[in-house]
Design brief:
The chain is built from four helices and nine strands. The protein is of the alpha+beta class. It has a single domain, classed as Adenine-n6-DNA-methyltransferase TaqI, Chain A, domain 2. The strands form three sheets. It has a four-stranded antiparallel sheet. It has a three-stranded mixed sheet with strand order 4-3-7, with no helix packed on it. α2 packs across α4.
Length: about 160
């Protein structure tokens, strides 16, 4: 019996990488549009109806974003959706720990390709419930840090 509970995978084994698209032909609406710098505008159509991880294709490539569905991404922002049996929240936190600039393929403006993103190796628990629990721990920790930073900022401004 193997005691190994984590496995090495490449991103393409746990996530699908999708390209963003131009949104300028769309009308104003309630669906957020994201670029490499975050939220841009809201439109009347969506590219995805499942949560995803946004990774810059050009420009800001080292700031992963958790994208809550529905959403649209511009052509400079890839969005990554999790395969069945892989927890997106944990994959997001794993993506935050990757040194994305190490994978930069440009000689000018930083850029990534689908092939490069797909080939990045990661370690992840085999069991979905373990992935889910670890993702929740990271989220609770992030929320606690944010709340403490907010309280400290308010205390210092008094």
């Amino acid at each position: 019996m193997s005691l190994k509970t984590w496995e090495q995978r490449k991103f393409h084994q746990v996530l699908d990488v999708h390209s963003g698209k131009d949104y300028k032909h769309l009308q104003n609406g309630a669906i957020p549009v994201y670029g490499t710098g975050g939220y841009m505008v809201s439109v009347n159509d969506k590219l995805s109806d499942v949560d995803a991880i946004g990774i810059g294709q050009k420009g800001t490539i080292d700031k992963p974003q958790y994208l809550s569905a529905p959403f649209w991404t511009v052509d400079t922002l890839f969005f990554l959706t999790a395969h069945v049996n892989y927890n997106l929240l944990l994959l997001f936190y794993i993506s935050e720990s990757i040194c994305w600039k190490k994978y930069d393929e440009s000689t000018g403006v930083p850029s990534l390709s689908k092939r490069t993103i797909s080939s990045i190796p990661i370690e992840i628990p085999q069991k979905y419930t373990e992935q889910e629990n670890i993702g929740k721990i990271f989220l609770k920790t992030d929320n606690l840090i944010a709340a403490n930073e907010y309280n400290l900022k308010n205390a210092l401004s008094i």
